[in-house]
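Troubleshooting entry. The earlier prediction with zinc ion gave an output that would not parse, so I re-checked the input for stray whitespace and re-submitted. Clean input:
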Amino acid sequence: MKKTLFSFLAVLFMALSLHAQDKVTQKVLELGKTDNRTMEHADYIARNIGGRIVGSHMLNHAEDWVAEQFRSWGLEVRIQEAVTIGVGFDRGPWSGRMLSEDGFALHFGTPAYTAGTRGPQKGRVYLEPKNQREFDRVKGALKGSWVLLETGATSGLAIDASPKADSTRAAQLAEGKKDIQVPMYRQMVEAGVLGFIRPAQLPMQVLYNRAMCFDLTMDNLPRACDILLDEHQFEIIKRKCVNREDFQLEFDIRNHFFPGPMKYHNILGVIKGTQYPDEYVMMGSHLDAYDIATGSTDDGQGVCVTMEAARLLAAAGARPKRSIMFCIWTGEEYGLLGSKYFVEQKTIPWNKISNYFNRDGGPLAASSVTVPPAMYDDFVKACEPLFNYNPDIPFTVNKREGEPQPRPTRAGGSDHAYFAMNGIPAISFREMDVFGYDFIYRDIWHTEDDLYDKLIPAYMEHSAVVQAVTAYGLANLNHLLSREGLYKD
Ligand SMILES: [Zn+2]
């Protein structure tokens, strides 16, 4: 009799906990449709904050805002200092004009951590001298002038102005090497040029001063501007130079350096597990973004989706067996710095992470996931509530066919890299342009067009629900996901 009562209670308890789980999931699904706030977060990140590179006050502001949001939803917040940079960099507005009878406004950008002007500065324009003889012919005229560099297509990185690059250029010049990029760079800076102008394809990609930003002090700041100009305007101006026409360019560029050190953080929101609190299902996106535009898709959209997944679960009263961690990374654009630090510090022991889901790559709809055979049943169970959720955006779990890939040995792509390199499952959702909006991430990636209007609300809102439901389902399993057959080794 006792035994029967015991098993009855056990069954009842199981049924109740299953019911509780269903209730949370049902609530997430319902809130996902009736009170989805993904685009509220996006509005704040893209329109209120905007560009937020490592080095800027805006990135600190964004960190504070994320942490505050997490706290207001009842999450536990851990703040992990991950990046320090000696000199800070903030960006104000920038504008420029060609001053002549047929003058026009200039369409341009400057990489982060490059020089601004001292108020509006105007000067004549010269074509780049390519050797000592050409330099000697113009050296007296270069002071206070702008110089056109015919570098061809650019990735958007700043010209390498480091001492090492100077000595490389000098050595190449001495060897008589051809095709040296900006061979007389240092001589022109010493001669007092206002700055350099390179042609940029549209929409222009404008990145940062990768060569020097971490080595700068207030005593060795860049002096000459580094301007990327609409290639069509560049051609017009170049023709005027060739024709020796009389005209000037004026630029007003508010690039501000200030003494650091500036510190940046991973913001980690946690819903604590009830049975296995030291085991984690994780998801994340990066908060830092280039500042030529507003980092709306890269990776504002990912941050918004990750945040909304957290909010939906918290609002639904989720108390999963295992902990769920929502990672808002720093320093991705400068080399995956935040997620690398997190993994290498073993912030969470590697064998306690069930899976890390990364989202960074366009505001598309998470519409499927492909997993190794050993994970298949668990994923089906976790994702089951999604199968009939939105008929317009069907969701499927696919079993990987064929051999596993070798474990990656080099970091690249995004914040999943250091997880994967260390054998931690970092399976991500496949994101699709389900409705056929002709979205091509490459069109806007790292460009001046990475703006709020490129976001696709229906896809992002849907993805927040997918991430929340899946993470919750995996966190409620009786075990961590199997790593069998994850990688080749
Ligand atoms: Zn990104």
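This one parsed fine. The two ends are 52 Å apart (CA to CA).
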